[in-house]
Amino acid sequence: MAARPPTHPDVSLNLALAVVASSSAPILLLDGNFAVVSASDSFCRTFQLAADKVIGRRIFALGDGEWDIRQLHSLLSATASGVAKVDAYEMDLQPAGKPLRRLVLNAHKLEYGNADQVRLLLTVLDVTQARIAEKLKDDLLREKAILLQEVQHRVANSLQIISSVILQSARRARSEDVRAHLHDAHDRVMSVAEVQKQLATSTLGDVELGPYFKQLCQSLGASMIRDHKKISIEVTADDSAVPADVSISLGLIVTELVINALKHAFPGGRAGKVTVDYHARGPNWTLAVSDNGVGMPADPKATPGLGSSIVEALARQLKGEVHSAPAKPGTTVSIVHRQLGVVEGAEPVGEAV
């Protein structure tokens, strides 16, 4: 293919002037001495400068001298010599008697084929309001985080007070049935408190389930296991992360099932282990809590307790199904979520276009 003939400098200059004149962005065309050859109307409006006081003047002399900035000298000199190309460089402009402005500069040397005829195209974007909005957003996020922390402290204190009141009432109760119900209510409050405590220490956004379940089970073990040489809790989980609201429900389920296993699976000082397992494939996931204890009650007509009702309700909320089965030895309770039409190990099938 034949080489293109060089473009005449006048043609290139006229093209550059046309680009500047038609631009809706603040643009300057500078010569080798950094004098303004052409300026877009947007530049003059943005910086409140009259066109006749811009054309022909060096950029450093514009306005009341606020453009005479050391960084700008260096950037334009490096661009004119071909040493550098300025892309998205931020600097401050301080007009006399006016608020500070934050600018983003882009400078490019135009090649005319004539080393003596240097032209620089400089775009100047005022991002002051955008930076103010970003700072306001950051300040609001910090304020939200502080308020959230305060709410979490208040919730934790309230749960402790409620727990203490219930426990005191249980101690004063004369009826064994009333005392048992109050102890169950106390356990429920403590399970919510454990979940709340773990979430309070987690970051905003998605929650990694592996570390979350481990911290939760460590807290449960510390408060409920008397002899850690006999009974232990193990967590096996993949690297799944879920939204905070989903993690709350999963955490409550784990808490209920672990508490139930620790209370009923190892009577009479029996040794054993509780295992919490979570694995997901695409949208399908399984949460299982197993123990190697004495197993499920022999009476099939046994009435489910409050904990079982809570687990059922939370599982329905997550669109999962609860399955209980002997583990030989012990018991396994699984919450299984299966999305219809999705095969494990395969990507979800999208709608036909």
TrEMBL record:
<keyword id="KW-0597">Phosphoprotein</keyword>
<dbReference type="GO" id="GO:0016301">
    <property type="term" value="F:kinase activity"/>
</dbReference>
<dbReference type="Pfam" id="PF07568">
    <property type="entry name" value="HisKA_2"/>
</dbReference>
<feature type="domain" description="Histidine kinase">
    <location>
        <begin position="150"/>
        <end position="335"/>
    </location>
</feature>
<keyword id="KW-0067">ATP-binding</keyword>
<dbReference type="InterPro" id="IPR003594">
    <property type="entry name" value="HATPase_dom"/>
</dbReference>
<keyword id="KW-0808">Transferase</keyword>
<dbReference type="InterPro" id="IPR036890">
    <property type="entry name" value="HATPase_C_sf"/>
</dbReference>
<protein>
    <recommendedName>
        <fullName>histidine kinase</fullName>
        <ecNumber>2.7.13.3</ecNumber>
    </recommendedName>
</protein>
<dbReference type="InterPro" id="IPR011495">
    <property type="entry name" value="Sig_transdc_His_kin_sub2_dim/P"/>
</dbReference>
<keyword id="KW-0547">Nucleotide-binding</keyword>
<dbReference type="InterPro" id="IPR035965">
    <property type="entry name" value="PAS-like_dom_sf"/>
</dbReference>
<keyword id="KW-0418">Kinase</keyword>
<dbReference type="InterPro" id="IPR005467">
    <property type="entry name" value="His_kinase_dom"/>
</dbReference>
<dbReference type="Pfam" id="PF02518">
    <property type="entry name" value="HATPase_c"/>
</dbReference>
